[in-house]
């Protein structure tokens, strides 16, 4: 235990570290005290504050781990960590929510795809173009990631609308099993490609196209500090999952009282769990690491589908009622134009303010239509 404790002491001595150590621990305490209780308004607000703090702390510790392991492993760490939050939230809400949560997995996963491919990508390109006039990235790696996202989204979210084995936009058990195996296989293949076979395709590049193999000019953190950050990252993620579960009744009540569709709950969950990715991607773009930002965005979209669908397929054994995965016509149009626009953005390997603005407008369309279908 001496090494992790000394790593925590190293973190506490570092400049921004006091709050990044204390907040996850305090958030866990709030989680324990709040679990299973009906909170008053003040309690909901306190839980929300610590939820936001735990999210920011998770970003900090994920970036420490990412700096130690380097790119593209660092992007993968945060993408998988955030997706674990999403999967845990979806499964827990579906197990406790009853038949009205039949479409929660679809709504949340699709919202994650739209937020990552339009929101995070758009913000990263906007920040990068404002800083250097032209945001530069590796089209080969980003194009492969986009192709994987498009395939996963089509197999898991579009095909259920058109299959005829079961009524409604749902897979039969055999079809769901096939989609789950295909999703996890594609995701695993991408991870091998990103981290082993063609790692250089996912590294940041200069404006001349030269690969930048070093993640930062600063020295990487020590092994003890990295282990401490890894432990605190896990604590922060547990706090985020638990506090978000506690906040979900308040979110559902607010959505219902505002007269908005139930699908908005999935959008709120996706916005919440993707906040760490968004912050990390914008920070990377400000450091001229647009490729890192795109790795985070597309990697999160891919993990959201590739890990959520297999987990939901297993959880469906215990779920009551149908599992609705197929998108409606409006959402299929939004998905199609998102894939087309992102393809046109990725192919040249460089983007301007215009491309960033187009992606953000697509996100705004999705959010507006979610509230007012």
UniProtKB/TrEMBL annotation:
Cellular component GO terms, alphabetical: plasma membrane
Main localization category: membrane
Membrane topology: Multi-pass membrane protein
Bilayer-spanning residue ranges: 16-36, 42-61, 73-97, 109-130, 142-162, 174-192, 227-244, 250-275, 296-318, 324-346, 353-371
Residues in Sodium/calcium exchanger membrane region domain copies: 41-195, 229-370
Superkingdom to which the source organism belongs: Bacteria
Keywords for the protein's UniProt record, in alphabetical order: Membrane, Transmembrane, Transmembrane helix
An example molecular function term from Gene Ontology annotations: potassium:proton antiporter activity
InterPro entries: Alkaline_pH_Ca-Antiporter, NaCa_Exmemb
A matching Pfam family: Na_Ca_ex
Localization in the cell: Membrane
Name assigned to this protein: Ionic transporter y4hA
Species the sequence originates in: Planobispora siamensis
């Amino acid at each position: 235990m001496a090494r992790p404790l000394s790593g925590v002491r190293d973190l506490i001595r570092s400049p921004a570290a006091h709050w990044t150590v204390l907040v996850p621990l305090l958030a866990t305490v709030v989680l324990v005290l709040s679990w299973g209780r009906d909170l008053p308004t003040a309690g909901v607000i306190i839980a929300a504050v610590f939820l936001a703090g735990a999210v920011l702390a998770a970003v900090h510790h994920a970036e420490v781990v990412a700096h130690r392991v380097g790119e593209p492993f660092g992007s993968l760490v945060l993408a998988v960590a955030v997706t674990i939050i999403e999967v845990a939230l979806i499964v827990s809400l579906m197990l406790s929510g009853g038949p009205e949560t039949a479409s929660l997995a679809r709504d949340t996963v699709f919202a994650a795809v739209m937020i990552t491919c339009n929101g995070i990508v758009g913000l990263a390109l906007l920040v990068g173009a404002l800083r250097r006039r032209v945001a530069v990235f590796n089209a080969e790696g980003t194009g492969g990631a986009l192709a994987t996202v498009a395939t996963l989204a089509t197999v898991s979210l579009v095909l259920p609308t058109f299959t005829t084995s079961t009524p409604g936009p749902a897979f039969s058990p055999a079809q769901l099993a096939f989609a789950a195996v295909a999703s996890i296989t594609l995701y695993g293949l991408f991870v091998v490609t990103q981290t082993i076979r063609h790692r250089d395709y996912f590294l940041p590049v200069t404006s001349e196209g030269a690969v930048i193999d070093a993640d930062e000019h600063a020295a990487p953190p020590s092994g003890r500090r990295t282990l401490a950050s890894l432990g605190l990252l896990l604590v922060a993620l547990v706090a985020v999952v638990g506090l978000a579960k506690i906040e979900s009744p308040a979110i559902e009540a607010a959505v219902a009282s505002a007269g908005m569709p139930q699908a908005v709950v999935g959008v709120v969950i996706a916005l919440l769990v993707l906040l760490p990715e968004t912050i990390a991607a914008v920070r990377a773009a400000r450091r001229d690491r647009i490729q890192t930002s795109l790795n985070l965005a597309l990697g999160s979209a891919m993990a959201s589908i590739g890990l959520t669908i297999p987990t939901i397929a297993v959880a469906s054994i215990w779920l009551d009622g149908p599992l609705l995965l197929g998108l409606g016509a409006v959402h299929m149009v939004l998905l199609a134009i998102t894939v087309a626009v992102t393809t046109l953005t990725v192919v040249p390997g460089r983007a301007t303010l215009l491309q960033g603005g187009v992606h953000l407008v697509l996100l705004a369309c999705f959010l507006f239509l979610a509230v007012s279908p």
